[in-house]
């Protein structure tokens, strides 16, 4: 899925301002500098003038910052390094951690979006990439998860 779409979905879901997104990204790594104008450009549609593509680095910082924002920092542990490659599976994992979702919550979110998944399908999404039962998360699956999570967070 396009990183800008994920960023737009998160912003809409939590009703975040551009400045709040900058602050959330900084929670993952205070040395990471994200400009409010860059965020504004990343949230524009692809065909609008001034559109800026959201890099994997920016999305990784936003997702990691979202975990810290919603759950707090782990006391006594150093911050985890930010992911270099962001796949749909990583986005799904990080959102699951940020919102403290159980398997039952995940199944309900997919069902609310009109896209039910089975237990084996769901567990396959969270396996390591080399595992024989690993399944890559497709764009449609992630899109439906974001839709269902938005319904859950914003009310339906």
Describe it for me?
The protein is mainly alpha-helical. It has two domains: 3-71; 88-154. The chain is 58% helix and 0% strand. The protein has helices spanning 3-14, 18-28, 36-42, 56-71, 88-98, 103-112, 119-125, 139-154. The radius of gyration is 16 Å and the shape is globular.
The percent of residues in helical segments reads 55-70%
- From the alpha carbons, calculate the radius of gyration and give it in angstroms: 16 Å
Distance between the termini: 24 Å
Please count the beta strands (DSSP E, at least 2 residues each): 0
Provide the succession of SSEs.
Answer: HHHHHHHH
Backbone structural class: mainly alpha
Q: Short description, anyone?
A:
Helix content is 58%, strand content 0%. It is an all-alpha fold. The protein folds into two domains: 3-71; 88-154.
Give me some keywords for this one.
156 residues, mainly alpha, globular
Q: Would you spell out the secondary-structure blueprint of this structure?
A:
Blueprint: H1 3-14, H2 18-28, H3 36-42, H4 56-71, H5 88-98, H6 103-112, H7 119-125, H8 139-154
Helix pairs in contact: 1-8, 2-3, 2-4, 4-5, 6-8
